[in-house]
Design a protein that fits this description.
Blueprint: E1 2-8, H1 16-27, E2 31-37, H2 43-52, E3 55-60, H3 65-71, E4 74-75, H4 77-82, E5 87-91, E6 94-98, H5 101-112, E7 121-125, H6 129-140, E8 145-149, H7 153-166, E9 173-176, E10 186-191, E11 209-217, H8 226-233, E12 238-240, H9 243-258, H10 265-271
Parallel strand pairs: 1-2, 1-3, 4-6, 7-8, 7-10, 8-9, 10-11, 11-12
Antiparallel strand pairs: 3-5, 5-6
Helix pairs in contact: 1-9, 5-6, 5-9
The structure holds 2'-monophosphoadenosine-5'-diphosphate (ATR).
Length: about 280
């Protein structure tokens, strides 16, 4: 039996053990997956001990994604671009590190929600770690345009510059403040700010939602967040939270560890909470 775990603080709320156990069962993989609580400042010691006891890989959740970035010996481009790590694989003295949040988001949008990004105008709210991790996977889909909007406009500018510097295509990328959104509309609006964690509404004009728009909140388990309520009141009928992103990033990690990609539909169905 191979051992895996998710590490965080707090960790009780994590759905990763449920998700990976379900994946292991349907793919017939001989593995277990547990929760590890690390004290703040105690990340490396807990990971060292897990590796010494034969651990093969880990997911990393708040507040340790930067600790994992520092701990890794081999950072994948996804982790470098995100500036954070959410999955590790241990091989001898090597610690391979990835960040699957961005690909998980895009896979959920394009595959599960049948919302193509190519040629469409995409707006992403927030300029923190969640947005940073999503930039390259979003740009790889070749949207018509990607706009990053943030309260602190300088951070939106920084991420737009970072994206321009790294993208291989020619997608126009802009960083804006919320007031600059007056008169603009978008086909896909993604809330990657942390506003929903505190039940706050970003200062977003309701006019940004184009007809047939999809509004997506990257948080999970918060129901109809103020952002999704605004979208609904603006007439948006396609509303989604981050449950599919959670399942898809897990499937990516599972495939990386085990060489087999599980289907996510059953897990998504099991974890979906109605948006009301
Ligand atoms: P994460 O890693 O989850 O993205 P973060 O790096 O702390 O978290 O970033 C949080 C993001 O949410 C920031 O872009 C923040 O905006 P500021 O940079 O202007 O602080 C954004 N944010 C948090 N609360 C918000 C709110 N109520 N409305 C709009 N944006 C908000």
């Amino acid at each position: 039996t191979d051992h895996y775990a998710v590490i965080g603080n707090p960790i009780e709320q994590s759905k990763s053990p449920l998700i990976h156990s379900a994946f292991a069962q349907v793919t017939g993989q001989d593995m277990d997956y547990t929760k590890l609580l690390a004290p703040l400042g105690g990340f490396a010691a807990v990971v060292d001990a897990f590796r010494a006891s034969g651990g093969r890989g880990m997911n990393v959740t708040a507040p340790f994604k930067l600790d994992a970035f520092a701990y890794a010996t081999d950072l994948a481009p996804s982790a470098q671009m995100a500036g954070a790590v959410n999955a590790m694989k241990f091989e001898g003295s090597k610690v391979f590190a990835e960040n699957f949040d961005g690909v998980g988001l895009v896979r959920d949008l394009v595959h599960n929600l049948a919302c193509p990004l190519m040629g469409r105008r995409v707006l992403i709210l927030g300029a923190g770690g969640a947005t940073r991790g999503a930039l390259m996977p979003l740009l790889a889909e070749q949207p018509a345009e990607l706009v990053i909007v943030n309260r602190t406009v300088a951070k939106a500018h920084e991420l737009a510059a970072l994206a321009k510097q790294h993208q291989t295509g020619q997608v126009p990328v802009q960083g804006l403040g919320y007031v600059d959104l007056q008169g603009q509309t978008f086909d896909v609006v993604l809330n990657a700010s942390s506003s929903s964690l505190s039940a706050e509404l970003p200062p977003l004009p309701a006019s940004v939602f184009a007809p047939q728009c999809l509004a997506y909140d990257l948080t999970y388990g918060k129901g109809l967040t103020p952002f999704l309520q605004l979208a609904q009141q603006a007439g948006v009928t396609q509303l989604a939270d981050g449950v599919g992103m959670l399942a898809e990033q897990a499937a990516e990690a599972f495939a990386w560890w085990r060489g087999v990609r599980p289907d996510t539909a059953a897990v998504i169905e099991r974890l979906t909470v109605p948006l009301v």
